[in-house]
DC1 domain-containing protein
Amino acid sequence: MWDLSRYKRDDSSLDHFSHPHPLTLIEIPEAVSRYSEGIAPCSGCKNHIWNSCYGCTSCSFFLDHACVNLPKEIERPGHEHPLTLVLLADPYGGSHSCGLCGQEERNRGFVYHCSSGCDFHLDIVCAFTPRRDLDYCQEHKFVKLKNSLSIKSFGFKCNACGTEDDVTPWLCTGCQLMVHDKCRSLPRSVRIRQHHHWINHVYAFACSQLPQGGNCTCGVCRSQLEADYGGYACPDPNYSFFCHVHCARDYICGSSQEYATADALELAEDNDNEDKVISSLHQTQEVQHFSHEHPLVLVDEEVIGKNDLTCCDLCFLPIITPPFYSCRVKDCVFRLDMTCARLVEKIKSELHPHPLIFGTEPQMPGITGAFRCDFCHRYSHGFSYGCEDCLLDVDVRCIKLRLGSCIHEGHDHPLFYKVGLSSPGDPGRCSACGCGSTGAFMRSRELRLLRCTPCDFNLDFVCATLPLKVKNHRYDPHPLYLTYRSYEGGKDTPPPYEFYCLICAEERDPKHWFYYCAECDFDAHPECLLGKNPHLQLESTYRHYEHPHKLTLVELAEDYHPDCHVCGSSCANLCLECTDVDCNFVIHWYRCNNLG
C-alpha cells in the first residue's frame, strides 16, 4: 500500500473515466522526488511517479500528468477502427499482446483497445511512438491536450520543427504527431534564399530522400539535423538539401500550402538566364554583353605584356591569365573576365529579397560612378547592382559570390550567408582579418558574413572577395598569392617567433590571411598591398560649383587631416583637393561634394 496522504493536496480535482472517485492533485516535495526511487507507480503506465500527480489516496490509485492527458480515442494507421483508451485491471486474464511490438508485459494499466470485435490492442508506448512513414496522413487532425501541467512534468519535442518545449502541444489523433500550436499551420513548401528550388516540409527526414542512417546537415546553419523530426527538404533527388524549420523562417521569400514536386520545380530566373549565357560563351568567340556597347571577342592566349597589369572593367579585379573578353573596337579598352561575362542583367540573389538590377543609379550623391557597397562597405568606381525600392548598392565582386553554398579556398567547408552577428557579446569577427564592427576596409556595425557554424568560422565580404593572386605589383616582381595561415599551432599555443608585414613593418597575426611570395620570402597585409581603397580611381578629376579649378580625388596620409572648406571639419582617408599647386582648397569627397 502506498501512503501519499501525508503530502500536500490541492483543492483542485478531476473526474477520470478510469476510476470511480474524484482524483485530487497531490504535490510531492522536490527533495523526496529527487532522492527517492519514485513515490508510487502510476496506475496507468506503471512508471514511478516523480513529481505531482492526481490520485485517490483511499484506493491507492494514482495517475501521472502524462496519463491524465492521454486522449480517450485515437486512430492508428494499419487499423481501420478507432482505438479507445481502457484500463486493464487484470492484464493476465487474457491475451493482451500489443499489436505493434507483440509484448504482453507492457499491457498493465492503460491500453488502446478496439471495441469493434477485432481484439486489437496497443500499449501506450507504441501508440505514441512517432512513425517514420508519416506521409500517409495527408490531413492531420490535431487536438489540444487539456492539462498543461503534464507538459511541465515531462516536456515534449515538436515533431514538426524538432525543438523541445514545455508549452501545451497539439496531438494528431491519426498519426500521434505532437506539435506546437504555431507548427500546425506550417507552409507545406517554401522558397528560401539559400536554395534555388521550392523545399517541402517533412515530419521526418527519413521520409524524404535521405538514406536510412545517413547524416543530415542543415543547409543553412550547417548543424546536425535529427532525422526523426521535421524540417524542410528539397524534393529533387539530385539535390540533397535539408534545413531546420527556424532556419527556413529566417530566410523565407515565398510560401505555399501545396507541396512542390520534383518534376515541377521552379528555378530562379537568374539561374536559367545564366545557364543560357554560359552555354553561349562555350559556343562562340564573340558576344554582345549587356555591360558594354561594343561586341567582345574571346582572348584565349597570352597578350598581356610581362610588365603590364590589367583589370576586369566590371569588377576591377586583376586578370592574371586568359581566357577573357576584350572589346573588338580598336580604340576602346574594355576587358571582361570570364566570371563577369557570365553575369546577367537582373539577378535574384540570397543577398536581398528583391531582384538586383545592373546599372541602377548609385545611391551615393555627388561623384558620378562612385558608390559604397552595402555588403563589403568599400567605396568603388564602376558598375554595381542595385534595388531602387530599398536604396541598396552591391558591387560586382560581392554579386559574384555564390552564397547558397559559397566555396572558398581558405576554408574546407561551404560557407553560408548570415546577417547581424555583431553584438557586445558576439562581435562576429572575421576569421581572416580579425575585424569586427570596425577596422580595415571600413567595416560596418551591421555585419554581413559568410559563416561555417560547425567550425565557428566567419568571413566578411572584403576578405571573401580578395584576389587570390596579385601580379606585377610594385613591391615584388613575382606574383603574390593569398595565403591563409603562417602558423598551424592551436589557439593556446604561441607561435615560435613574430611575424611582420614587410610593407608597413608592423607585426601581423600569423593566423590571419596575408599575401606571400615564396621566391622572395615577402609577406604583407592585404590592405598594405592593395591599398585602403583599391577599387576607387584615384586622381580622377571633377568640378565643384563654387570653385574655379578642377578637383582631384586623393588618398590622405594617416597623419594628414586638412580642414574641409565647406563644413570646416577635418578630412580623413579620402578628399577632393584642388589641382592648382597654389590653391589649398580641400573638401570631403562624399559629404560636401555637390559637383557641378
The longest strand covers residues 8-14. Residues 269-283 form the longest helix (15 residues). The chain has ten helices and 39 strands.
